[in-house]
Automatic annotation (TrEMBL):
<feature type="compositionally biased region" description="Basic residues">
    <location>
        <begin position="11"/>
        <end position="20"/>
    </location>
</feature>
<protein>
    <recommendedName>
        <fullName>DC1 domain-containing protein</fullName>
    </recommendedName>
</protein>
<feature type="domain" description="DC1">
    <location>
        <begin position="15"/>
        <end position="61"/>
    </location>
</feature>
<feature type="domain" description="DC1">
    <location>
        <begin position="130"/>
        <end position="177"/>
    </location>
</feature>
<feature type="domain" description="DC1">
    <location>
        <begin position="71"/>
        <end position="119"/>
    </location>
</feature>
<dbReference type="InterPro" id="IPR004146">
    <property type="entry name" value="DC1"/>
</dbReference>
<keyword id="KW-0677">Repeat</keyword>
<feature type="region of interest" description="Disordered">
    <location>
        <begin position="1"/>
        <end position="20"/>
    </location>
</feature>
<dbReference type="InterPro" id="IPR046349">
    <property type="entry name" value="C1-like_sf"/>
</dbReference>
<dbReference type="Pfam" id="PF03107">
    <property type="entry name" value="C1_2"/>
</dbReference>
Length: 241
C-alpha cells in the first residue's frame, strides 16, 4: 500500500515572534488569549508552529498597520510596537486608562500610548438606551471646567478628564469608551474584587468588539479616526516547512 506523503503546511513569519506561525481556527471555549491584543482568541487566527510555544494572534492583529494617523493625537503619527517601550514592560492606555503589556500604538515624542483595540473604536456609537448617536471625544467634556467632573451615565463612575468618552452633546449624556452593558445585563453589585472582575470583563468585551470592527473594515484603507500608511516593504513573508 502506498504511503501518504506528508502535507506541507504553509507558515508565515511575523515580526512580533521569532518562530513561524501557521493558520489556526479558534473554537468557542478554547480559552486562548491573543498575544497581540490580549483578548480572547476567536475566529481566524495564527498559532506558533512550535508545540511548546503558546503564541497566538488574531488575523486582525496579524494585519495591523505599522503606522496610523489618529485624530486623538494629530501632531504625530502613532507607531505599532509589539511590546511596550518601558522598563516595566507595561503601559497605561491614554484612551481607556487600562493597562496593557503587548501590542501598542505609541508616539515616542510624547509617550502617548493606545491599545490596538482602542485605536480603531468607531467614531459614532448607537446605544439602545439612548435616543441619539454618541460621538467619540478624546477627553472629558468637563476638561478645563473647574470644579466639574464627568460621570459615566451607565455605571455612574467618574472618568478622568484626559480619557476618551462617548458623548451626546444634545443631552450631555456620556459613557466610558468601553461598553458598560455588563453592569446592566448581569446586574452586578459593585464592590471589592467583584467590581475589579467586572471592570476587566467590560474591557475585554468592548475591545473584542473593536477588534471585530477592525477586521470588518481593514479591507478599505480608510478607517474611522485613522488614515493608514502602508510601507512598500512586506511585513511578513510565506515560508514552507
Amino acid at each position: 500500500m502506498a504511503s501518504r506523503k506528508p502535507v506541507n503546511r504553509p507558515s508565515v513569519k511575523h515580526p512580533s515572534h521569532k518562530h513561524p506561525l501557521h493558520i489556526f481556527k479558534a473554537q468557542e471555549g478554547d480559552e486562548i488569549i491573543c498575544s497581540g491584543c490580549e483578548l480572547e482568541l476567536t475566529g481566524e487566527a495564527f498559532k506558533c508552529t512550535k508545540s511548546d510555544c503558546d503564541y497566538f494572534l488574531h488575523k486582525s492583529c496579524f494585519d495591523l498597520p505599522r503606522e496610523i494617523n489618529h485624530k486623538s493625537h494629530p501632531n504625530h503619527p502613532l507607531t505599532l510596537l509589539h511590546s511596550p517601550p518601558y522598563e516595566s514592560n507595561a503601559y497605561g492606555c491614554d484612551a481607556c486608562g487600562q493597562y496593557g503589556s503587548s501590542f501598542i500604538y505609541h508616539c515616542s515624542k510624547c509617550q502617548y500610548d493606545v491599545h490596538v483595540g482602542c485605536a480603531f473604536l468607531p467614531e459614532i456609537l448607537e446605544r439602545e438606551d439612548h435616543e441619539h448617536p454618541l460621538t467619540l471625544v478624546f477627553n472629558s467634556p468637563c476638561k478645563g471646567r473647574e470644579g466639574m467632573v464627568f460621570m459615566c451615565d451607565v455605571c455612574k463612575e467618574t472618568v478622568s478628564e484626559n480619557l476618551w468618552v462617548y458623548h451626546c452633546k444634545v443631552c450631555d449624556y456620556g459613557t466610558h469608551v468601553h461598553s458598560c452593558e455588563v453592569y446592566e445585563n448581569d446586574e452586578v453589585k459593585r464592590g471589592g474584587g467583584e467590581e475589579e472582575a467586572v471592570l476587566e470583563a467590560l474591557r475585554m468585551e468592548s475591545l473584542r468588539n473593536a477588534r471585530m470592527e477592525l477586521a470588518n473594515m481593514r479591507i478599505s484603507n480608510k478607517i474611522n479616526n485613522s488614515v493608514i500608511h502602508f510601507g512598500d516593504e512586506p511585513r511578513y513573508h510565506w515560508v514552507r516547512k
